[in-house]
Amino acid sequence: SRVDVDENGDLVINEAAQTVLEQAFLDARVTMDEQQLEELKAMIEAGLDGPAGTQAVEVAEKYYRYSNAFREISDTLAMRSDTGSLRNDYEQVTRLRRTHLGPELAEQLYGREEKLTRYTLEVMEIQADPGLTPEQRAEKQEALFARYPEVSPGDDLESAPPPEQSTN
């Protein structure tokens, strides 16, 4: 009941679907096994008619496989601050998504998030480069922003005005 269906009766893969999937499969408090997956698939088929039901079952199966694989590697995804490690972790998760979800579903669920992550990592690399002058950093960031038109200016922390200073 928490997924959208379009006018053709097809499942809509959007942020709402991503949220439902993550809550069902990636919640650390709940780990689903094969039997529970089969029960979930039966409930989906009973609750969603037509193509949307078939698609939802397929998506649930793929996401179940992805969530198990993600859990296996999540301990190795350390909270590091160097951009090289962050990029390697990010690429590992991206490959995992493409492997288990398939390129199309992974793009539908995570495409925007992945673009924002790539953009952020590249901004971090520019900022961390000691060989750049402030002008060169600005030029590189401008060129980077042009490569990621889907990143809105509000998401660019570098162009945001500085926070107001409180005077006590």
Total strand count, please? 2
The chain-level structural class is mainly alpha
Which ranges are low-confidence, i.e. pLDDT below 50, for 5 or more consecutive residues? Answer: 155-168
Cα-atom Rg, whole angstroms? 20 Å
Walk across the major sheet and give the strand order. 1-2
Contiguous helical run count: 6
Strand residues, percent = under 5%
- State the end-to-end distance: 51 Å
Main sheet summary: 2 strands, antiparallel
What letter string, H or E per element, gives the SSE order?
EEHHHHHH
Provide mean pLDDT, rounded.
Answer: 84
- Shape assignment: elongated
Give the % helix.
Answer: 55-70%
Describe this protein's structure.
With 168 residues, the chain is mostly helical. The chain has helices at 15-25, 34-47, 50-74, 83-101, 103-128, 134-147; strands at residues 4-5, 11-12. Strand 1 (4-5) and strand 2 (11-12) form a beta hairpin. The chain starts with a strand and ends in a 21-residue tail after the last helix.
Index terms:
single chain; 168 residues; mainly alpha; two-stranded antiparallel sheet; 6 helices; 2 strands; elongated
What's the short version?
With 168 residues, the protein is mostly helical.
Topology at a glance:
Elements: E1 4-5, E2 11-12, H1 15-25, H2 34-47, H3 50-74, H4 83-101, H5 103-128, H6 134-147
Antiparallel strand pairs: 1-2
Helix pairs in contact: 2-3, 3-4, 4-5, 5-6
